[in-house]
Amino acid sequence: NLPACPPLLSGQPFIVFWGIKDSSCSNRLDFRSFGIEPEGRVAVFYEDTLGNYPYFVDKDNPVNGGLPQHTKLDLHIQKTQGDVETALPAPRYLGLGVVRWQEWAPQWSRRAGKQGLYQNATKKLLRRFFPDWTKQELERWSKVRVYCSVQRSRPKALWGMCPYPSCSNGSPAQTALSNYTGECPEEERSLNDQLLWLWRRSNAIYPLLTLEKIQVQYRNCLWSTTVAALFLSNQIREALRVASLGGSSDDLPVFPLVRSVYASTNTFLSLSDLVTTIGESAALGTAGIVIWDKTEPKTEVQICVYVLLGPYVSNVTAASRLCSASLCQNRGRCVRLEQDKPTYLHLPSNSQDAADRVRSKLWKRDFQCQWFSSADRDVSDQQSPKDGVPSVGKREDSVRRGLDVLPTVSDGISTTTGAYRAQNEETGGSVSPRTTLGMPLDKGEIKSPSGILVLLLLLLVLCS
């Protein structure tokens, strides 16, 4: 196995990022008190926010010409550079750079329906220039492949495309099987292997974890929890497998994007959902996750963060740090020994024996170390996200905390909910509950990643 790339933030083997632009709550939520990196650490670019990306809304509504052949590459690159500099003013921006082009697919076979628009439009264009070509010749030259990477202007960011790799393991026909395992079909793994050119030009892997289809299909059904766990676990495993194909000396870091809200019901993820997304990602050895939605949730974000998400994130991130210290001497990340075994990096509640000796024994039984490729990097040139203000060396909330309001999978969120309500009643709603952990937080000195230099360029070419 390849070693892991050192953590983006020193001393944090598993990092949870807040990637939702929430203007109503962003100034009121103290994300770092829960171990969550705030929104400024994540930059997600869409079709309309990065360059002059050509695509079709439908067959009669092209945007930027619809086809690469109608887009001037120099103008596209110029606008792309401007968009990046506007979104990330700090040249030394240290965070995640996610390109989320929903209209872009690197392989025809995976999105044949919508991609047919592009093929048909290209055929018409080619017919004008080559009226004598046969149908077979038009088919051959009408497949457009978009090759994407990211430019040198923000070299310390971890750039990658979302939502790749694909797994296609959650169709109704698959999940309805009594022996459903969730494994990615072999043909999907083979298609992912064909995307080596993409993995080799990426700094990170950004799969998308969403339970929307499973939730709709198995609403009010106990089987849904089992299906969801198998469905998501195998998507994470495939991303980790692909992370080793990049050709570098260490695995690419994997940061799954997790949708925070079910669109069909406008409700936040439940505790069991957090376990199968955040908890599973941590146990399998990803570098972190991103809580993400393109638009602001209509549901009350503050309640969710303080009552459920925040306490659970505090639990998992603290357990990840302690396991790394205990099992790996802070030089590696704890990874589940048996991938199919439902063991997690969870801290026990006060009612359980939380002695370091017992914890260490359990972790040694269920986890192993994936060592980091090198020691922590120099922090001398690190700058905080987006604005370029030098970062402080310690977390603001580096205080000792207890386990009294920390929910576990077994005891749910009743204690935390009670704490939230009690504080609100006492202060008229002006005070928010804080998660408490029974150990001091790490110093959290922020170190820069290796100097991965990439070129932001959209080359739009025809494939034979």
TrEMBL record:
It comes from Periophthalmus magnuspinnatus. Its EC number is 3.2.1.35. GO terms for cellular component: cytoplasmic vesicle. Keywords: Disulfide bond, Glycosidase, Hydrolase. It catalyses: Random hydrolysis of (1->4)-linkages between N-acetyl-beta-D-glucosamine and D-glucuronate residues in hyaluronate. GO terms for molecular function: hyalurononglucosaminidase activity. Belongs to the glycosyl hydrolase 56 family. This is Hyaluronidase. The lineage of its organism: Eukaryota, Metazoa, Chordata, Craniata, Vertebrata. One of its GO terms (biological process) is carbohydrate metabolic process. Residues 425-435 have a biased composition (Polar residues). It holds the Pfam family Glyco_hydro_56. Residues 376-397, 414-436 are annotated as: Disordered.
